[in-house]
Amino acid sequence: AQSVTQLGSHVSVSEGALVLLRCNYSSSVPPYLFWYVQYPNQGLQLLLKYTSAATLVKGINGFEAEFKKSETSFHLTKPSAHMSDAAEYFCAVSAGSSGNKLVFGAGTILRVKS
Amino acid sequence: DTEVTQTPKHLVMGMTNKKSLKCEQHMGHRAMYWYKQKAKKPPELMFVYSYEKLSINESVPSRFSPECPNSSLLNLHLHALQPEDSALYLCASSQEAALAGGPNEQFFGPGTRLTVL
Lengths: 114, 117
Fold this sequence. Notes:
Chain A is mostly beta strands. Chain A contains no helices and eleven strands.
């Protein structure tokens, strides 16, 4: 079975500061990993995905994430936060087993201060 | 077209009403999903359709009845709901590769905000 842990239900950064949202996964088989963003009262939008090609994955809106197998982590970063980045972020894993379901973390709400 | 559409955007219904939520995608995806999302929580999987057949039902109460009329459409029929069923209902779809164990990259619609009075 797969699981995802997101450390920190709320993260607050100043505009222009580094954004770091943490995600650790558990999987008995090589995982596929995803970061989604959700703005209030909207659906989920895919930011980026890891599918076993490059370990450093670049996504939309200046976000990137690095897959570290030894640390079972897939942390999301952005060098400089913008006010429009304020949203909820979900890390998710699928692994080709257990019906290949997408298993979500609990989510991290990002607040950007001006 | 890389979009999943959902109608209606908002729905208010009484506990004795019957209503339906609709979802449509034209990306040729062969897997479609219904999720329920409560405030400040991740989406919870309800149903999965693979090649228009129900493949996963996450022990959802029978007052929720899914239907997949064709490969592009997914409905969720609602009857005799409870106030605790109020939530954002999300539809998603994914490519055929996900059904064969590939990356289950799902594309989500904007959701239907359901309020049960």
